C-alpha cells in the first residue's frame, strides 16, 4: 500500500491559497458535508481539547472542490473503518494509532497515558511508538486489524499492564477523602492536643503573654516552614501512600527515607500509647473525685488504656470511612469545647471563681501577666520545650496520602490552613486566659482586701482580693498552679473535659492510622527485607491490617509500662527529625537544580527550607539534648544499614541529581588544570566485548585501575547497522548492571561499525570526558591468529598502530587458555532454561495431581483440559536428566578456571618486569600498582634490563639508583647481557616453521608472478624477513631467556615490540608476539606512549 502524506491531497490547486491545510468540525459522514460547497464563509479552526475524548474531535476538513478527491481517497480502502465507531480522521478516540491528524502515520499525539509508570493505579500505561517504529521504513501492506487500534491505545499486551488493571479493579470503590475531611480535620485534631486545655495556661503564667506569644510564634515558624517545604515536595509529582516517608524517600533516596520512615512509624505507634495514657489519666482523675477507683491509679490507667486502644483498633480496622466519621465527631466536640472557653471569659465571674483568680477581662491583669515570671528551674527554653509538642501534628494528613483523592492539592491546602486556624486558636486562648486570670490565687472567698491595705501594684488587690500569702506558701489556684484553669473559666466545665477526651482520642486515632500506613509503604518498597510480611493490604482500601495489629501490640506494651515521661522527649525528637528532613529535602532538591524539580506550589525558597531544617535540629536539642543524641544515633545506624544493603530502587532522588551536578562540576574544573606526571594514572579502554565474556582480561585491568584510574569495557558490534544498533541498545543497561553486580568499578561502552578496526578507532578517539580520557588500550592476545582470516589479522594489528597514532599506550595480555568463555556461558544459559522448564513442568504436574481428586463434571473437564500437558512429561524429564548428567569437563573446565585466575589471591611469588625499552615508565608503573592490591601484595618485583656484558655491575647500580629515586621497592635486579646472542637452532626452527605458511618465497618465482602475489596476498617476503632478521632473532632469544628466568613467575611484564608501519607485515608481527610469549605464565606486553609517567621530583 502506498501512503500519500502530501498536503496537496486536501488542498485547492489554486496557487493563491496560502494555507497548507485547514482544520474544521465536520460531520461523522463525509456525504453530509456536501452542503459546504455553497458556504462562502471563511473556514473555522477548532480548538484542540484533550480533556473529553468522546466529544471533542480534531479532524481535517476538505475545502470546496475537494470532496471528489476525498471520496476517491476514501474508496481506495486505505482509510477504511475498522469498526462502526472508527472515523477515518479521528485522532482522539482509542483508534488514534496509525491515524494521527488524518494521515496514516505511526506518530501519536501527546497523551497522559504515555507518561504513567507501569502498574499505575490511576490508569494503564500506554507505550508510544518507539523512535525505531517512526524512523525505519514502514513495511508495505500495512493493515490495522479490527480492534487492534483499541488494543494499542489501551496499552493491552504491554508488560505490567495486567498488574495495573488488577490494581485498578482493587481500587474501584475505594474510599478517598478530600482536603477538608482528609487533611484539614486530621491536622487540626492532631495539633489541638491536650496541651491546649491543661498546659497553655501554665505556659502563659510562666512566660507571660508577651513571651508566650513568642513561644507560640516560634513553634509556628517551625511548623509553617515545614508545611511550605512539604507543599513544594507534594506538588512536584504524584504523591502515593506513605506520608513523610514517601516524601523524604522520593526526594533524598532510600537511605534517608528508610531510616526516618522506620523511626517515624515507631514514633506514631508509641504516640498512640502516650495519647491513650493521657486520656486514661483524665478518666482516673474523675474516678478519684467520685471515689470510684477500681484498683489503684497505676493499674486503673492500664485497664482504661487497654480498653480504649482496643476500641480505637476496632474503629481503625472497620475502615477509613468509619475512622473519618469518628474524627469529624471528635472535631465537633473539640470546637464546642474551645467555643465554650471563649464564651466563659465574657460570662460575669462569681465569688468562687474570683477567689480562684478569674476576674473576666481586666487591663490590670493583662498588664501584670504580660511579662515573664519564671519559677525556680524554669526558663524560656524549658517552657518552649514543654509547649512545642502541642504545635506538632502537621503530618497527620500527609500520612494518609494514599487515601486522598488529590494529595497534591489536598496536603498543601489542608495543612497550611490547619496551621493557620490552630495558631489563631492558640494565640486567642493564650491572650484571653492571660487577660482574665491572675498568676496566683488561694481559692478562699474570705481573702478579700482589708480597708487601708497597700496593694503594691497587684492586679488582684486592685480588684478586691488579697493573694499575698501565695508568695510565701504554695497556692492551688491561678495560672501558675492550677492546670484546670480552662475548666474554671469556661461556661460549662464538663465540656472542657469532653474536649480533653476528644483531643486525646483523636490524636491517638490519627496516630493509630498513620503508623500502619507509613509502615506499609516502607515495607512495600522492600528496603528492610525482613519486614516484607507487613506490606500486604486488605480490602478495597488496601488496609494494612497486619500493620494495625503490630501498632496495637507496640501501643499495648507501652500502655502496660505506664512510664512514658522518659520516652516522650524521644518521640517528640523523632517527629522533629522528620520535619528537619522534609525541609532539607526541599532545599536539596532545589540546590541540585534538577530539571525534574518543578513544584506547582511556588511559595518556597531553598534557603528558607535550609533554615527550617537547621531550626528543627536546634529545637531537638532545646527540648532534650540526650533525646536528640539518641535520635541521631538511631537514624545514623539505620542510614548505614540501608546504605550497606543497597536496596534495588531508583526513585530519581535529588541525591542522584546532586551527584551528577558535582561530577559535572568536578570534570569541568579538572579541564582547567594541566596534566602533571605526578598525577598520572592508567586510564584504560579494555576490548572485552561483553564484559562477562572475557572476565580474566577485565580482572587484570581492574586490578591496576580500581580506585585509581578510568576503566571502560568496550564492545564493537560489526554487521548490518540496523541489527547491530538494536542489539547494542538492548544490552547496554544489562552489561553495565553486570559490572555493578560484580563490584567492578568500570564503565561499559559500545559502538556499531562496519568493521572492527573502525569501531575501535572511534572508541579511541571519542571515549572519555575532559581529562578523564583513556591513555592506555588493553587487549587480549589473539590466540587463534593462525586460523583467522587475513582481515581479522589486519584489524588486530591495525588497532595497535591506531593506538600508537593517537599516542595511546598498549597492553596486550596473554594467558595459556585464552579469555573468551562465551561458549561456556551459552551452555550455562541453556542449562538454566532447561532447569526452569523442568521446575515449571513439575509444578504443573503437581497441580494436576492435586486436582485429580476433584469430583463431578467440573473435575472431569479439568482433567481433560490438562491432558495434553501431562503426556509428554516422561520424555522431557529424561532429556533434562541426560543433559544434567553430562560431565563438566565437556564445558572446558580449564577455561573456566583460567577465567577466574586473577580473582584469586596470588600467593608469595614474583612479578618479573622485563624493562627492555624505555617507554616513559608505564611498564614499571603497572606492576607497582598491582603490588599495592590485596591480591598481589605478597608478590615481589624483579626487574630485568638489557646491558653490556662488561658493564653489568655498573648498570645494575644505575638501575637500582633510578628505582630508589622513583621510590619503587624491588626484590632484585638482573642485567641481561646476552640478549643479542643468536637463539639456538631448535628455537629458530620452531619460529621458521611457524611463519612458513605465511611466506611468499618470491625469490623462487619469476618477477611477474611475485609482484602479482604481493598485491593479491600480502605475506612475508624474503626481503622483509632478511631486513629484520636481527629483530626476529631477538624475539626468539628473549623467549629462551624468559623460559630460563621467569618460568615460575606469577606474572611477566614485558616490553611490547613495535612494528614499524609499512616495513613489518602483519603475519610477521603476530609471529613475533607468538614466539615471544610462548609457553609462559600470564604475560603483559606493555608499551607506553613514550611520555613520562614516573618522576623523582616532589
TrEMBL record:
Domain annotation SLC12A transporter C-terminal: ranges: 694-1098
Gene3D superfamilies cross-referenced by the UniProt entry: Amino acid/polyamine transporter I (1.20.1740.10)
A GO CC term attached to the entry: apical plasma membrane
Record localization: Cell membrane
Organism domain of life: Eukaryota
Keyword Ion transport tagged: yes
One Pfam short name: AA_permease
Record domain Amino acid permease/ SLC12A: where: 182-685
GO-annotated biological processes: cell volume homeostasis; chloride ion homeostasis; potassium ion homeostasis; potassium ion import across plasma membrane; sodium ion homeostasis
Coiled coil: 824-851
Record-annotated membrane-spanning stretches: 183-203, 209-239, 260-281, 301-321, 328-347, 380-402, 414-438, 492-515, 545-564, 570-591, 603-627
Catalytic activity: K(+)(out) + 2 chloride(out) + Na(+)(out) = K(+)(in) + 2 chloride(in) + Na(+)(in)
Keywords: Cell membrane, Chloride, Coiled coil, Glycoprotein, Ion transport, Membrane, Phosphoprotein, Potassium, Potassium transport, Sodium, Sodium transport, Symport, Transmembrane, Transmembrane helix, Transport
Gene: SLC12A1
Amino acid permease N-terminal domain location: 90-157
A GO molecular-function annotation: sodium:potassium:chloride symporter activity
Ranges for region Disordered: 32-51
NCBIfam families per the UniProt record, alphabetical: 2a30 (TIGR00930)
Membrane topology annotation: Multi-pass membrane protein
Protein name: Solute carrier family 12 member 1
InterPro entries listed in its UniProt record: AA-permease/SLC12A_dom, AA_permease_N, SLC12_C, Slc12a1, SLC12A1/SLC12A2, SLC12A_fam
Amino acid at each position: 500500500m502506498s501512503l500519500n502524506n502530501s498536503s496537496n491531497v486536501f488542498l485547492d490547486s489554486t496557487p493563491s491559497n496560502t494555507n497548507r491545510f485547514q482544520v474544521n468540525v465536520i460531520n461523522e459522514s463525509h456525504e453530509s458535508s456536501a452542503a459546504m460547497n455553497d458556504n462562502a464563509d471563511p473556514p473555522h479552526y477548532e480548538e484542540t481539547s484533550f480533556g473529553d475524548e468522546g466529544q471533542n474531535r480534531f479532524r481535517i476538513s476538505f475545502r470546496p472542490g475537494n470532496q471528489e478527491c476525498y471520496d476517491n481517497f476514501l474508496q481506495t480502502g486505505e482509510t477504511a473503518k475498522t469498526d462502526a465507531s472508527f472515523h477515518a480522521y479521528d485522532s482522539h478516540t482509542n483508534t488514534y494509532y496509525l491515524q494521527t491528524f488524518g494521515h496514516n502515520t505511526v506518530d501519536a499525539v501527546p497523551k497522559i497515558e504515555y507518561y504513567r509508570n507501569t502498574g499505575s493505579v490511576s490508569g494503564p500505561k500506554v507505550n508510544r511508538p518507539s523512535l525505531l517504529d517512526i524512523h525505519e521504513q514502514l513495511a508495505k501492506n500495512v493493515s490495522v486489524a479490527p480492534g487492534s487500534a483499541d488494543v494499542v491505545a489501551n496499552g493491552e499486551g504491554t508488560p505490567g499492564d495486567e498488574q495495573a488493571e488488577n490494581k485498578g479493579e482493587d481500587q474501584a470503590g475505594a474510599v478517598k477523602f478530600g482536603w477538608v475531611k482528609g487533611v484539614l480535620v486530621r491536622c487540626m485534631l492532631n495539633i489541638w492536643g491536650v496541651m491546649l486545655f491543661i498546659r497553655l495556661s501554665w505556659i502563659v503564667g510562666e512566660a507571660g503573654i508577651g513571651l508566650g506569644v513568642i513561644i507560640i510564634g516560634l513553634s509556628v515558624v517551625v511548623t509553617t516552614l515545614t508545611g511550605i517545604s512539604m507543599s513544594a515536595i507534594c506538588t512536584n509529582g504524584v504523591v502515593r501512600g506513605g506520608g513523610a516517608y514517601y516524601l523524604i524517600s522520593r526526594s533524598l533516596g532510600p537511605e534517608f527515607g528508610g531510616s526516618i520512615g522506620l523511626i517515624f512509624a515507631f514514633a506514631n505507634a508509641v504516640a498512640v500509647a502516650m495519647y491513650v495514657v493521657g486520656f486514661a489519666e483524665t478518666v482516673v482523675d474523675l474516678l478519684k473525685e467520685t471515689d470510684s477507683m477500681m484498683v489503684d491509679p497505676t493499674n486503673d490507667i492500664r485497664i482504661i488504656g487497654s480498653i480504649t486502644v482496643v476500641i480505637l483498633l476496632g474503629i481503625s480496622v472497620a475502615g477509613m470511612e468509619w475512622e473519618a466519621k469518628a474524627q469529624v465527631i471528635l472535631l465537633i466536640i473539640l470546637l464546642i469545647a474551645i467555643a465554650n472557653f471563649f464564651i466563659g471569659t465574657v460570662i460575669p465571674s462569681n465569688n468562687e471563681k474570683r477567689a480562684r483568680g478569674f476576674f473576666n477581662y481586666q487591663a490590670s491583669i493583662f498588664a501584670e501577666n504580660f511579662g515573664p515570671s519564671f519559677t525556680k528551674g524554669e526558663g524560656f527554653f524549658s517552657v518552649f520545650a514543654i509547649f512545642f509538642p502541642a504545635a506538632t501534628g502537621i503530618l497527620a494528613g500527609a500520612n494518609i496520602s494514599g487515601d486522598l483523592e488529590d494529595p497534591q492539592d489536598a496536603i498543601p491546602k489542608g495543612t497550611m490552613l490547619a496551621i493557620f486556624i490552630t495558631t489563631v486558636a492558640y494565640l486567642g486562648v493564650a491572650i484571653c486566659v492571660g487577660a482574665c486570670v491572675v498568676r496566683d490565687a488561694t481559692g478562699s472567698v474570705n481573702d478579700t482586701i482589708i480597708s487601708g491595705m497597700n496593694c503594691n501594684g497587684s492586679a488582684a488587690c486592685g480588684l478586691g482580693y488579697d493573694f499575698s500569702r501565695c508568695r510565701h506558701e504554695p497556692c492551688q489556684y491561678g495560672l501558675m498552679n492550677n492546670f484546670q484553669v480552662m475548666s474554671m473559666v469556661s461556661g460549662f466545665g464538663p465540656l472542657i473535659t469532653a474536649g480533653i477526651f476528644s483531643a486525646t482520642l483523636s490524636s491517638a486515632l490519627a496516630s493509630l492510622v498513620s503508623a500502619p500506613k507509613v509502615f506499609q509503604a516502607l515495607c512495600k518498597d522492600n528496603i528492610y527485607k525482613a519486614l516484607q510480611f507487613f506490606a500486604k493490604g486488605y480490602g478495597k482500601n488496601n488496609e494494612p491490617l497486619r500493620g494495625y495489629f503490630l501498632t496495637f501490640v507496640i501501643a499495648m506494651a507501652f500502655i502496660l509500662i505506664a512510664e512514658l515521661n522518659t520516652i516522650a522527649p524521644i518521640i517528640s525528637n523523632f517527629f522533629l527529625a522528620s520535619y528537619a528532613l522534609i525541609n532539607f529535602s526541599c532545599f536539596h532538591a532545589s540546590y541540585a537544580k534538577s530539571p525534574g524539580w518543578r513544584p506547582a506550589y511556588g511559595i518556597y525558597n531553598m534557603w528558607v527550607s535550609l533554615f527550617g531544617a537547621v531550626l528543627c535540629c536546634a529545637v531537638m536539642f532545646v527540648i532534650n539534648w540526650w533525646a536528640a543524641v539518641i535520635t541521631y544515633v538511631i537514624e545514623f545506624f539505620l542510614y548505614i544499614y540501608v546504605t550497606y544493603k543497597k536496596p534495588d530502587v531508583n526513585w530519581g532522588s535529588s541525591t542522584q541529581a546532586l551527584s551528577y551536578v558535582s561530577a559535572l562540576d568536578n570534570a569541568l574544573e579538572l579541564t582547567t588544570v594541566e596534566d602533571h606526571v605526578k598525577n598520572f594514572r592508567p586510564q584504560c579502554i579494555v576490548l572485552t566485548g561483553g564484559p562477562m565474556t572475557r572476565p580474566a582480561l577485565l580482572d587484570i585491568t581492574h586490578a591496576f585501575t580500581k580506585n585509581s584510574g578510568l576503566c571502560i569495557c568496550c564492545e564493537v558490534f560489526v554487521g548490518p547497522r540496523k541489527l547491530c544498533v538494536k542489539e547494542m541498545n538492548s544490552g547496554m543497561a544489562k552489561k553495565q548492571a553486570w559490572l555493578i553486580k560484580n563490584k567492578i568499578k568500570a564503565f561499559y561502552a559500545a559502538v556499531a561499525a562496519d568493521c572492527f578496526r573502525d569501531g575501535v578507532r572511534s572508541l579511541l578517539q571519542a571515549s572519555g570526558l575532559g581529562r578523564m580520557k583513556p591513555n592506555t588500550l588493553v587487549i587480549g592476545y589473539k590466540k587463534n591468529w593462525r586460523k583467522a582470516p587475513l582481515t581479522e589479522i589486519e584489524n588486530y594489528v591495525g588497532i595497535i598502530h591506531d593506538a600508537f597514532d593517537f599516542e595511546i599506550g598498549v597492553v596486550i595480555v596473554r594467558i595459556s587458555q585464552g579469555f573468551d568463555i562465551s561458549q561456556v556461558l551459552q551452555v550455562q544459559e541453556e542449562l538454566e532454561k532447561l532447569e526452569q522448564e523442568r521446575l515449571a513442568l513439575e509444578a504443573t504436574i503437581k497441580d494436576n495431581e492435586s486436582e485429580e481428586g476433584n469430583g463431578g463434571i467440573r473435575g472431569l473437564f479439568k482433567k481433560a483440559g490438562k491432558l495434553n500437558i501431562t503426556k509428554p512429561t516422561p520424555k522431557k524429564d529424561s532429556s533434562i536428566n541426560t543433559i544434567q548428567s553430562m560431565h563438566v569437563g565437556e564445558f572446558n573446565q580449564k577455561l573456566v578456571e583460567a577465567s577466574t585466575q586473577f580473582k584469586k589471591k596470588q600467593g608469595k611469588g614474583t612479578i618479573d618486569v622485563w624493562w627492555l625499552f624505555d617507554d616513559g615508565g608505564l611498564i614499571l608503573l603497572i606492576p607497582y600498582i598491582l603490588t599495592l592490591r590485596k591480591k598481589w601484595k605478597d608478590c615481589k618485583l624483579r626487574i630485568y634490563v638489557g646491558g653490556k656484558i662488561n658493564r653489568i655491575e655498573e648498570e645494575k647500580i644505575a638501575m637500582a639508583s633510578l628505582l630508589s629515586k622513583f621510590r619503587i621497592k624491588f626484590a632484585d635486579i638482573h642485567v641481561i647481557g646476552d640478549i643479542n646472542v643468536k637463539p639456538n637452532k631448535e628455537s629458530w626452527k620452531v619460529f621458521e616453521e611457524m611463519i612458513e605458511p605465511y611466506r611468499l618465497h618470491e625469490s623462487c618465482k619469476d618477477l611477474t608472478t611475485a609482484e602479482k602475489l604481493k598485491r593479491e596476498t600480502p605475506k612475508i617476503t624474503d626481503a622483509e624477513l632478511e631486513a629484520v632478521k636481527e629483530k626476529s632473532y631477538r624475539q626468539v632469544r628473549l623467549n629462551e631467556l624468559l623460559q630460563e628466568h621467569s618460568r615460575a613467575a606469577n606474572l611477566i611484564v614485558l616490553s611490547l615490540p613495535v612494528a614499524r608501519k609499512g616495513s613489518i607485515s602483519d603475519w610477521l608481527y603476530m609471529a613475533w608476539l607468538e614466539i615471544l610469549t610462548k609457553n609462559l605464565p600470564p604475560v603483559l606486553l606493555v608499551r607506553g606512549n613514550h611520555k613520562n609517567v614516573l618522576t623523582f621530583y616532589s
